[in-house]
């Protein structure tokens, strides 16, 4: 059947899909920083937790000479570049991430991140003000085999160092728990979901 030119049906044109919603610009650097902070803080929490539940109870079951020798060796060997990177990164990365989030007006995620950084700042404060001076005093005691009263040296160290480390463990775990919601909120916003993250 033929149609006049003006009456010929035109082939149906499939509807054009609209452009996909763009993700907020610049979300990847924040994601990387948050994940780096979460990893560093998790590693530090695991380290402190390990001392709380196994290392210190195990040393407490031994004699004074063994305790002093072991802690001197641990304090000496832990001073290395990898530990320093993780120890400082657990604070530096959340601080950087909080600034990045504030600049992007992601208030909720920024608040959670800043709270995590503050919790770890308390860990740093306890480490610098209490634990490191105790470690230095223990090292200054010298060769454990030549210490006149190892029981006294152990007592002066352990009665303060152990409970403060337990507190560091709690604060570090709190920081880790605070950082996780920040990463979730940031990811939710980056995916284009509604919210104030």
Features:
elongated, mainly alpha, 197 residues
Which residues form runs of ≥5 with pLDDT under 50?
19-23, 193-197
Total helical segments:
5
Number of domains: 1
What is the β-strand count? 0
Give the overall form: elongated
Question: What proportion of the residues form beta strands (DSSP E)?
Answer: under 5%
Helix content: over 70%
> Largest sheet, if any?
none
Please give the alpha-carbon distance between the first and last residues.
62 Å
List SSEs in N-to-C order: HHHHH
Mean pLDDT: 89
Structural class: mainly alpha
Overall radius of gyration: 28 Å
InterPro entries: Anthrone_oxy
Pfam families: Anthrone_oxy
Keywords: Membrane, Transmembrane, Transmembrane helix
């Amino acid at each position: 059947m033929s149609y006049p030119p003006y009456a010929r049906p035109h082939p149906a044109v499939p509807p054009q899909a609209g452009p996909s919603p763009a993700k907020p610009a610049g979300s990847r650097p924040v994601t990387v920083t948050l994940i780096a902070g979460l990893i560093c803080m998790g590693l530090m929490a695991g380290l402190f937790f390990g001392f709380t539940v196994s290392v210190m109870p195990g040393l407490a079951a031994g004699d004074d000479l063994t305790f002093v020798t072991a802690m001197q060796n641990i304090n000496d060997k832990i001073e290395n570049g990898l530990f320093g990177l993780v120890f400082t990164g657990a604070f530096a990365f959340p601080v950087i991430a909080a600034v990045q989030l504030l600049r992007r007006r992601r208030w909720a995620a920024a608040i959670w991140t800043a709270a995590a950084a503050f919790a770890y700042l308390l860990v740093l404060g306890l480490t610098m003000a209490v634990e490191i001076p105790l470690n230095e005093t223990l090292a200054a005691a010298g060769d454990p085999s030549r210490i006149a009263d190892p029981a006294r040296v152990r007592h002066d160290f352990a009665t303060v160092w152990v409970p403060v480390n337990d507190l560091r463990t709690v604060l570090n775990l709190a920081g880790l728990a605070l950082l996780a919601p920040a990463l979730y909120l940031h990811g939710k916003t980056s995916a284009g979901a509604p919210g104030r993250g």
